[in-house]
Amino acid sequence: xxxxxxxxxxxxxxxxxxxxxxxxxxxxxxxxxxxxxxxxxxxxxxxxxxxxxxxxxxxxxxxxxxxxxxxxxxxxxxxxxxxxxxxxxxxxxxxxxxxxxxxxxxxxxxxxxxxxxxxxxxxxxxxxxxxxxxxxxxxxxxxxxxxxxxxxxxxxxxxxxxxxxxxxxxxxxxxxxxxxxxxxxxxxxxxxxxxxxxxxxxxxxxxxxxxxxxxxxxxxxxxxxxxxxxxxxxxxxxxxxxxxxxxxxxxxxxxxxxxxxxxxxxxxxxxxxxxxxxxxxxxxxxxxxxxxxxxxxxxxxxxxxxxxxxxxxxxxxxxxxxxxxxxxxxxxxxxxxxxxxxxxxxxxxxxxxxxxxxxxxxxxxxx
Amino acid sequence: xxxxxxxxxxxxxxxxxxxxxxxxxxxxxxxxxxxxxxxxxxxxxxxxxxxxxxxxxxxxxxxxxxxxxxxxxxxxxxxxxxxxxxxxxxxxxxxxxxxxxxxxxxxxxxxxxxxxxxxxxxxxxxxxxxxxxxxxxxxxxxxxxxxxxxxxxxxxxxxxxxxxxxxxxxxxxxxxxxxxxxxxxxxxxxxxxxxxxxxxxxxxxxxxxxxxxxxxxxxxxxxxxxxxxxxxxxxxxxxxxxxxxxxxxxxxxxxxxxxxxxxxxxxxxxxxxxxxxxxxxxxxxxxxxxxxxxxxxxxxxxxxxxxxxxxxxxxxxxxxxxxxxxxxxxxxxxxxxxxxxxxxxxxxxxxxxxxxxxxxxxxxxxxxxxxxxxxxxxxxxxxxxxxxxxxxxxxxxxxxxxxxxxxxxxxxxxxxxxxxxxxxxxxxxxxxxxxxxxxxxxxxxxxxxxxxxxxxxxxxxxxxxxxxxxxxxxxxxxxxxxxxxxxxxxxxxxxxxxxxxxxxxxxxxxxxxxxxxxxxxxxxxxxx
Amino acid sequence: xxxxxxxxxxxxxxxxxxxxxxxxxxxxxxxxxxxxxxxxxxxxxxxxxxxxxxxxxxxxxxxxxxxxxxxxxxxxxxxxxxxxxxxxxxxxxxxxxxxxxxxxxxxxxxxxxxxxxxxxxxxxxxxxxxxxxxxxxxxxxxxxxxxxxxxxxxxxxxxxxxxxxxxxxxxxxxxxxxxxxxxxxxxxxxxxxxxxxxxxxxxxxxxxxxxxxxxxxxxxxxxxxxxxxxxxxxxxxxxxxxxxxxxxxxxxxxxxxxxxxxxxxxxxxxxxxxxxxxxxxxxxxxxxxxxxxxxxxxxxxxxxxxxxxxxxxxxxxxxx
Lengths: 367, 528, 320
Prior knowledge:
Strand order of the largest sheet of chain B: 6-7-8-3-9-10
Shape of chain B: globular
Oligomer: heterotrimer
Largest sheet of chain A: none
Strand content of chain A: under 5%
Shape of chain A: globular
Radius of gyration of chain A: 22 Å
Structural class of chain B: alpha/beta
Radius of gyration of chain B: 25 Å
């Protein structure tokens, strides 16, 4: 017997949770002496008011789609991958090595190779925690956190000692060759006669992210592997009974998760910076947690949540520019979204369930 | 016999010495739409042992949980020693002199016995004096009531029987006058159960009042003074034990005459299907669970394995099901199967014609969050007929197949898109059974097929198992219910401590003999 | 490397270990009661910010300390609300708190002080002073023991001595008091505690209060040591403390050794940009990553198995 209709569970609860998160964010803005309404207007204007703003919004959203899907794949196997940040960093390394290895003649060749490089490095960084969880029972939450720090130290070392251009003051790699340049929205849309800001960062990677979203849906709900991942996620003992190898699922789910996080690098490293810089991921790995939670680990939900966070990120940048509210406001919103949609789920759910039970009783009486 | 209705018999209650130890009046409790207790009234005399008997889900545990303050009753009164009390949490129950021994013990595994005994009943903020006091009292109690247990042992190192004694000691340390035991013998060997009963008799002599919840008629007859029968949340009768019979109680429990015997033709066993030689299982903790077992199951027979839970039956099923490793030799249809787990798992076993209805359908047989159709291929999801192409599963085809199976096995409601957790226990079991039987296996492993299943479904499930046997399939049945073993099996094997204690034909044995074997007492030992 | 250098490195290790130790003990109380606390980092940061801000405004680090504890406690209670009262996922709640602290400290700090997320520098009574233990000056002249006493043992702030004192105190509370028995029980098997008539919820909240106070001390220490709050100044110390807690197998004395070890690693990393072992040079980044690497190795069970309290991470749902 279900206490609540499905739509309420899938739509109403996340909606209320997000509204609560936004309400408290507004409260923070108000508390620091700013006008929340002006803030929202500034953010909307900044994120959607120009093609440049839209481009940035989509660029950020692309990052978050990748990391959100990464968290969600692991979550379907009941693994909480907090290591998206480190996996995306390592993905950047993979993309960089691929892009710098060959004088690429055209992006159509460079992109698939870079995708493989990014996914492989991201997956490799997820493999060790996955293997330790599967074979040694080491808690994946702790190990992935540790690997974020280890990854940051590793990249710091490589950028200062190995990848740095000799003689340069900057801790960054060499610029990628021209042929590894991904078309941005301006270049993609020009043939259709649409004018788009030429210097804004949204690029081909956005479409790769959309493709991954679709493939994610196929994987989780249409394939045997997805079936096994979900089965293992719901009950390990039942999975064993059914002949599903738990170690195999843990490792595969984490490899896919790490691969998706690593793929993010084709957007931020290859598509935008066109070189590897320090702290290229900028917390996108962590935002993936908020995106996956808010999107209920469903591809459509993740897509919408990623767009919302893309808007928040771009809008937040404008906010700091025009209203001198620090960009960290977005981190506050992100925290509140995680809190309300993730940890405080029951706070919203319990009263709603009571409401629906009461409504159901009334209906019966009328009938 | 005399069936009395206790409700509202006493009009005024005075706190006298003759007042009943416990009186419940008009207790009702609902969980959402489910009415777990309906207007229940009982009265238990001081210094007596009162049994509460009923099927699984009849509302016995809910009633006792209300008495212990775990749930709050929607309506009704609780009167202890003539005083009405308001019990809203365990603290108040303890203060009212009530102690409870839960079915699943509430002990901290890596604490010592002493620490567990004083937990929540310490004197003052420091542990030392409390521990000393408890040590003294424990010694005294163990001498008085055969309740000996090492006060410094860690709980995790104690046997189940000893752990139960710690639970009783906990209650006595809190000076409980009323002791409630919920299914106390479920995990005990008959010998341990007898020991428990001696302890209870001793406590009764000291004037303690004991309420025992069980679904085992034998225990009720053996130890109680009075007995109440519950059915579907209602108290159907309260009688003096001496004035009733097991048959009568059984009828009161289920509400109609029960067929304890299943109608079936004599077996006609054929060739061996599975031959087990010298099987050994060591679990993850390094404990030898199965100690050199030899077994054979033939076509067209039901081999029943009985024993107290935890004597290696579970591990035996797991090894055969392919998700536990073992050593020894097993031939399936004459071909050896892998026991190391390196080349086998649940799916390879299924491919060899072994189907498995596991003991625990919630944790193993089903994914409760999955819809019925997803569960209907669980374990067989790699089978070619469930695939659309190399990549995708044939979800539409699976749903159609599920619909057919649900109709055939009378699963209600017959809706493939309903999540497994939304079905009743009996219907969940039918889903599992349908899945395993419909694959037409050579060998069916069945563990506790009717645990938590309503009476109507039990008959249906038993019929299905017998029908499969009549098709010439081999069936290995594991059950802790002696009735079930006796009525379904063509041959019976008793397991104790990972070993086989003996083999009997159901027509040539009785529950008493099997009970002794289950306790590890063989004929030779008895003769000595 | 001469003797005085070693003493100085050890002294610096103790200084750096202090916040780790306090945070680690905070995590110990919380997790022993069955509440996993990934939010240590956030509490540390929130406490450091409020302590820094209050000390800057009032000029008194003691008022800063109260503010720091209050901030950390507020975060602890939020964690309790999510993970105890509403039975939410403790990991997710902890992650959210870390982000909340990272965001709020900068947003509020910027609007309050307009210093780009910093608080004004602390000086004088705005910081904790080191205590010169008796005879430190006199003893400094005695060879070997003298410098050790003067440099290493003497001269620390109140909070360092308090942190060291907290170790035996925690041990005593956990293993010798009624509260400790109940706390450990609730982390192992909450239903045993519940059926014994003790409130699981209250015990877990009590553990979170202790954790909040300890993190408040640690955060204030950070703000005092750095003479003010700087954006992201906890810099992963909450996670290192979590690592130390695993390293310590959830035991107070082990927690002391683990945090001292991690403090030592940080001290060595601070003093030497890179360490040459013959031809091979250990990069500073390796030293920074070493606590995390060590924790992974411990978690992998290659060096003894770390078994957390059995009920940690699970909300308590009553069942028969």
